[in-house]
């Protein structure tokens, strides 16, 4: 079911964001712009001036009504849940935007339910920049009653969100989404590299492709970066997508899914990471297409 209507709410709950990296900071800024009071906690990220930063997870949990997790993977999210388990308050809400293992998300939900804490997954489709611009989409999983109660918050984060079903459904759909989006990036990268090998100008190639049936949105978001090899100031890091691809493969192996292109994608991402592009923007997948000269005895 698609949701994009505004939820009226006289009281805006205080939100605490755990994990104020690229995406966490963007979500926090969206909420602040919508009138929410937002606190943040992150053991490594730089503090954002717009947020009230807490010195500890304990302090954050005690200050807020909704704890919003935005962490690198579900293993780290599970550690945060474990660390804060005895601190959560009755009827507190945990919303997890982490792209992670559906099974781990389900387990976290069951664990928190024993503390009478509501747990929802709200996976984000889009980069940190798209989140700031209001162009990201949320894939929500969890009890429909809790989803409806927190609809105002989802509306504040994104202009479009979908409730996919019970816990685990949001995470599984996010992996489907990221598979399609990631392969779109890979196809564009391969096309641009093929054009380069034929002696064609990258800027001109991209300009023409945008005006043909081959067009896709990824040409707007990643095309110039690929052509110019501009991978700094990442919107989303290459290593994060490699982590997602590994999750896709795990899920496919468990379900019997056949995903040969994604298996190849994993190899190319690993190649780019080996070349030192893991912390760069995920458009650096184009570097994974470089020939491995060492295999030809040319290193």
Number of strand elements? 9
Q: Segments where pLDDT lies below 50 for 5+ residues?
A: 5-9
Q: What structural class do the secondary elements suggest? A: alpha/beta
State which percent range the strand residues make up.
Answer: 5-15%
For the record, give the distance between the C-alpha atoms at the N and C termini, rounded to a whole number. 54 Å
Number of domains: 2
CATH superfamily of the largest domain: NAD(P)-binding Rossmann-like Domain
Strands side by side in the biggest sheet: 1-9-8-7-6-5-2-3-4
Question: Given the structure, what is the number of helices?
Answer: 12
Radius of gyration: 20 Å
Shape: globular
Quickly name the level 1 CATH class of the largest domain: Alpha Beta
Share of helix among residues? 40-55%
CATH structural architecture of the largest domain: 3-Layer(aba) Sandwich
CATH T-level topology of the largest domain: Rossmann fold
Order of SSEs: EEHEEHEHEHEHEHHEHHHHH
Question: Can you give the mean pLDDT?
Answer: 92
Largest sheet: 9 strands, mixed
């Amino acid at each position: 079911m698609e949701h994009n209507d505004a939820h009226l709410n006289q009281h805006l709950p205080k939100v605490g964001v755990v994990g104020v990296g690229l995406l966490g900071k963007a979500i926090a800024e969206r909420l602040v712009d919508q009138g929410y009071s937002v606190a943040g906690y992150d053991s490594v990220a730089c503090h954002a001036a717009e947020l009230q930063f807490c010195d500890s997870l304990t302090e954050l949990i005690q200050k807020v009504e909704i704890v919003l997790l935005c962490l690198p993977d579900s293993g780290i999210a599970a550690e945060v849940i474990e660390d804060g388990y005895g601190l959560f308050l009755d009827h507190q809400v945990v919303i997890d935007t982490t792209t992670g293992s559906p099974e781990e998300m389900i387990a976290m939900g069951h664990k928190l339910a024993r503390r009478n804490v509501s747990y929802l997954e709200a996976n984000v489709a889009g980069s940190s920049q798209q989140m700031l611009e209001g162009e990201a989409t949320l894939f929500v999983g969890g009890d429909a009653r809790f989803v409806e109660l927190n609809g105002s918050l989802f509306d504040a984060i994104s202009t479009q969100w979908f409730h996919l079903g019970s816990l685990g459904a949001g995470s599984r759909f996010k992996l489907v989404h990221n598979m399609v989006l990631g392969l779109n990036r890979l196809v564009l990268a391969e096309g641009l590299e093929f054009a380069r090998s034929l002696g064609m100008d990258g800027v001109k190639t991209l300009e023409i492709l945008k005006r043909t049936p081959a067009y896709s949105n990824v040409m707007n978001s990643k095309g110039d970066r690929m052509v110019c090899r501009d991978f700094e100031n990442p919107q989303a890091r290459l290593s994060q997508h490699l982590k997602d691809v590994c999750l896709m493969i795990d899920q496919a192996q468990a379900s019997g899914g056949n995903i040969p292109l994604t298996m190849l994608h994993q190899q190319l991402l690993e190649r780019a990471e080996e070349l030192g592009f893991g912390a760069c923007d995920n458009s650096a997948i184009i570097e994974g297409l470089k020939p491995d000269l060492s295999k030809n005895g040319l290193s």
